[in-house]
């Protein structure tokens, strides 16, 4: 090979190596900056949060509040008096008549009361725990009766907000 060709090949390889190192440096520097930017957006709690414990006396208060909320719905009151929008939707699922669409706040008080008048309920084995700074979860066995006959018995959890209004809940599977 000629001397000029050797120098051209060496210069080409060195140029490619320098270009590759430059692109790699820029690429990894950008990634590092992205990680640092994300690191600043991550919130890390510096102190632990402890939620209030529920005393046995408060369990009775929560049971009365929940029973009053459910009874308010069965009495035909508007849901904004006893539950949030999500809570009212959850409670309507507990009291559905076969063959009839569930009632909503669009119907008047008389229509809602007529729809729910054959329903009764019982709460048993109630447990309460604080799930957040201003939220409480109530877990209980709920029995729904229609015209005196049990139609639904299951473990249910109700979420109550700071005002003791139903804000949601969950159904649990039977064993």
How would you describe this structure to a colleague?
It is a single chain. By secondary structure, the protein is α+β, with helices and mostly antiparallel strands. It folds into two domains: 1-44; 56-171, Nuclear Transport Factor 2, Chain: A. The chain has helices at residues 3-41, 56-74, 85-94, 109-116, and strands at 119-130, 136-146, 149-160, 166-171. A four-stranded antiparallel sheet has the order 1-2-3-4, covered by helices on one side. β3 and β4 form a beta hairpin. The model has no long low-confidence stretch (mean pLDDT 84).
Secondary-structure content class: alpha+beta
Give the domain tally: 2
Q: Please provide the count of β strands.
A: 4
* Largest β-sheet summary: 4 strands, antiparallel
The CATH topology of the largest domain: Nuclear Transport Factor 2, Chain: A
Helix fraction, binned, reads: 40-55%
- Give the C-alpha Rg: 32 Å
Give the rounded overall mean pLDDT: 84
CATH architecture assignment name of the largest domain: Roll
- Number of contiguous helices: 4
Along the chain, the helix and strand elements come as HHHHEEEE
Spatial strand arrangement across the major sheet: 1-2-3-4
What is the CATH class designation of the largest domain?
Alpha Beta
């Amino acid at each position: 090979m000629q001397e000029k060709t050797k120098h051209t090949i060496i210069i080409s390889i060195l140029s490619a190596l320098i270009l590759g190192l430059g692109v790699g440096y820029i690429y990894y520097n950008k990634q590092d900056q992205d990680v640092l930017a994300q690191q600043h957006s991550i919130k890390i709690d510096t102190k632990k949060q402890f939620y209030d414990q529920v005393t046995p006396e408060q369990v009775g208060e929560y049971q009365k509040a929940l029973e009053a909320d459910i009874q308010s719905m069965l009495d035909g009151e508007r849901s904004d008096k006893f539950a949030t929008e999500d809570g009212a939707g959850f409670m309507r699922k507990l009291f559905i008549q076969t063959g009839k669409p569930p009632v909503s706040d669009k119907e008047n008080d008389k229509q809602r009361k007529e729809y729910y008048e054959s329903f009764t309920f019982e709460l048993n084995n109630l447990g309460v725990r604080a799930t957040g700074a201003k939220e409480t979860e109530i877990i209980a066995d709920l029995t729904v009766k229609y015209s005196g006959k049990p139609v639904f018995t299951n473990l249910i959890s109700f979420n109550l907000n700071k005002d003791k209004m139903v804000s949601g809940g969950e159904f649990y599977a039977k064993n």
